[in-house]
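methionine--tRNA ligase structure dump, as promised
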Amino acid sequence: MAMRINCSIQNTICLLNPSLFSLHSRISHLKFKPQLRFSQNPSRGVAFFCTNATNNGNEEPFVLTTPLYYVNATPHMGSAYTTIAADAIARFQRLLGKKVIFITGTDEHGEKIATAAMAQGSTPHDHCNLISQAYRTLWKDLDISYDKFIRTTDSKHEAIVKEFYSRVLANGDIYRADYEGLYCVNCEEYKDEKDLLDNNNCPVHLKPCVSRKEDNYFFALSKYQKSLEETLNKNPNFVQPSYRLNEVQSWIKSGLRDFSISRATVDWGIPIPNDKTQTIYVWFDALLGYISALSDDQEQPGLQGAVSSGWPASLHLIGKDILRFHAVYWPAMLMSAGLSLPNMVFGHGFLTKDGLKMGKSLGNTLEPNDLVQKFGTDAVRYFFLREVEFGNDGDYSEERFINIVNAHLANTIGNLLNRTLGLLKKNCQSTLVVDSTAAAEGNELKDNVERLVYKARIQYENLSLSSACETVMEIGNAGNLYMDERAPWSLFKQGGYCF
Ligand code: MSP
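structure tokens r here:
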């Protein structure tokens, strides 16, 4: 009896903590099949996503995106963070039976990339190929289960951006004007002087913004002020966590200004339709990657085809520094083009080193490859999900990393796995010889685990990833306690069998 129940628990742990999936794949030689059974308890609050249905082929897919990463430099742990979180969410949705389209990719145009390529003595084209590949390699090393990888230099993307631009133009939302302002090349954004530090330093990159004056094409963002206000009022879950919604609402309230969506001085970009002297602003271009990623490679690329393959996105996961682009500019652009808005934008916090955002421009990064080589993929994935409350900033410390991984993965999960699998191997030829579901009926541990499984499900749905990890550890602890109490090893010694 003890044995059967503990094997079920162990399955549950692997299934419920998608961040530990590689661990799960290592025990797949066992002859029992993991089962996922979530109890339904509608009285326990409303989850953000509708996840109960199993996929019957007609159901809307769960479309989840990470930002498209700039290819100015190779990825660091800060860039990997969003993708690890997205991967855990994608795996969770798949476990619920949803068809998931998990989109990631690279943002390859603009001044920042062209300058980085030049500094490497390379062409933008070769530079982008190299760094984009480094992202793919890292996702492989981190066991990231993405479905689509879009590059903004893909020809299908370029075609869709041009079509989208033409729609917005036809809707009367693009006009030409002069612009003068302070530009942060690292953010690829004109800044308001009031938001800058001393000497016009950008608050994120701590580098001076440069004065720019250009004749550009503008997007009439101000026209969408009211519609955006209404959208957020009607749908407060659109921006999460809720404290970020307040931030977005106050930006909108303070008055939206039209923004420039072309560059006269940047060659490395998609040319403006009917004006080859300007290229499309890198953000206007990159946001459309979320749609062009959906486009089927076999078909003639087109906006409608891409949209009908899964748009709107269920969830955009982003860092808090790019919230304005996703929660203000992007919805307005979509409204202008007559397309649906994504269901939710979640802005997480930063991984920091000594309180400062980890990033290439500050030179304080942590190399994910070094961590993976030293500690293994599961440990890296688990640590960042568990340690950083999703939404808030989190500081990295190697001491903490080692302590958490030892306590949670080695002593709790590892111990439970070794005890259950070891006993099964030694005494039962690694098989379950009885029906574990029937045998566990009425057992207190089973009831407890079912309750915890339900709790973890709600936490995953609410994107409380750290709490979900905690609940999974509760299941592990309950399993270990049960083993201690029942001591099945002595039952075996006394000549007992698997039940
Ligand atoms: N290219 C744009 C996104 C375009 S999406 C259509 C961009 N790229 S980025 O490479 O600079 O950043 C990508 C994501 O990585 C952002 O969400 C950013 O917040 C995140 N991170 C970069 N450094 C980070 C940390 N130190 N910590 C957590 N996330 C961080 O912005």
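Confidence is low (pLDDT under 50) at residues 1-16, 21-55.
lmk if u need the other ones
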